[in-house]
Write a structure and sequence with these properties.
CATH architecture of the largest domain: 3-Layer(aba) Sandwich
Structural class: alpha/beta
Number of helices: 8
Strand order of the largest sheet: 5-2-1-6-7-9-10
Shape: elongated
Largest sheet: 7 strands, mixed
Mean pLDDT: 95
Number of domains: 2
């Protein structure tokens, strides 16, 4: 079976690595164009592109995968199946009609729950006790195609977006190989329509979404910290002159009540902040332009006083 792989980030790289290790070496890997990570830095290839070149695959990185030149390039591969994992562009109707077996996508949730761009963060934010990987057929509506395979994993209390994504990436590669093997054997898995009544969606995070809303409960904010770790991070701004910006790395809800955003207790190794319900105990932070540090180390260098307050958003 000949397949073309579409992917860009580390999650997609894990799927490509599993396919290559299983003997499904794509003649062509499609990825996003190289981009600068810093304003003056050099354009950097995607993790998928780097692995593809190491594996001896041809790489194609069009600005638009749906334009005529890209479609012609894809038709020339004579691929039987397209496999997609964290690619970053919507596949148009003409593209999806190219391979005889269509296109399948590796999605990091148990569809129809958490359709969209940020399913791992969404699972943590929602307090889900399990999530998983779904292999689904790609259709024109985002993440709405029928399910070919799914496998669940627990969401651990200590999971953040980084640790959960890593586990899901490994599982996604394993499940993708199983499904591709079934296609190659001429017996693809039966397709199960998604239950539209059970759909939840999640959008891509915008810059303003990273600021802590202290009117939320301590439980919700602790999930928020984990859902945004390691990137983009949960940010809070202490109302000083000048303001002091922090990224919260470790926190936990504790008993007690206070005014949302107000420091209700400052001890040697932690400080407690009021929320909409309960207190949030801050244990590790990253001050602006500094390295991560424990709350104890932070308090040794930055004197906090009970009664000081954090702003509700990043706005002054």
């Amino acid at each position: 079976m000949t397949l073309v792989f579409f992917g860009s980030g580390a999650f997609g790289r894990a799927t490509l690595a599993a396919l290559v290790a299983a003997g499904f070496l794509p003649p062509l890997v499609v990825t996003q164009p190289a981009r600068r990570r810093r304003r003056r830095g050099k354009p950097e290839p995607t993790p998928v592109e780097r692995l593809a070149l190491e594996s001896g695959c041809a790489v194609f990185a069009p600005a638009s995968v749906n334009d005529d030149d890209a479609l012609e390039r894809l038709r020339a591969t004579a691929a039987d199946l397209f496999v997609v994992a964290e690619y970053g562009q919507i596949l148009g109707r003409a593209l999806l009609e190219i391979p005889p077996s269509g296109a399948i996508n590796v999605h990091a949730s148990l569809l129809p729950r958490h359709r969209g761009a940020t399913p791992v963060a969404a699972a943590i934010l929602a307090g889900d006790t399990e999530t998983g990987i779904t292999i689904q057929r790609v259709v024109r509506k985002l993440d709405a195609g029928p399910v070919l395979a799914a496998r669940a994993v627990p969401v651990l209390p200590e999971d953040d977006a980084g640790s959960l994504t890593a586990r899901l990436a490994t599982l996604g590669g394993e499940l993708a190989v199983e499904v591709v093997r079934a296609f190659a054997a001429g017996s693809p898995p039966p397709e199960r329509p998604q239950d539209e009544a059970q759909v939840t969606t999640c959008r891509r995070l915008r810059p303003g979404d990273a600021w802590v809303d202290w009117t939320r409960s301590a439980i919700e904010i602790e999930r928020f910290v984990r859902a945004l770790r390691p990137e983009p991070g949960a940010h809070a701004r202490l109302d000083r002159d000048p303001p002091l910006d922090l990224q919260l790395l470790q926190a936990r809800p504790v008993d007690g009540e206070g005014v949302p955003g107000v420091l209700e207790g400052v001890e040697r190794a932690f400080f407690d902040v009021g929320t909409g319900s309960g207190l949030l105990r801050i244990l590790e932070v990253v001050p602006a332009s500094r390295k991560p540090m424990t709350a104890r180390a932070f308090l040794n260098g930055y004197r906090l006083t009970r009664g000081e307050r954090f702003l509700r958003t990043g706005d002054r």
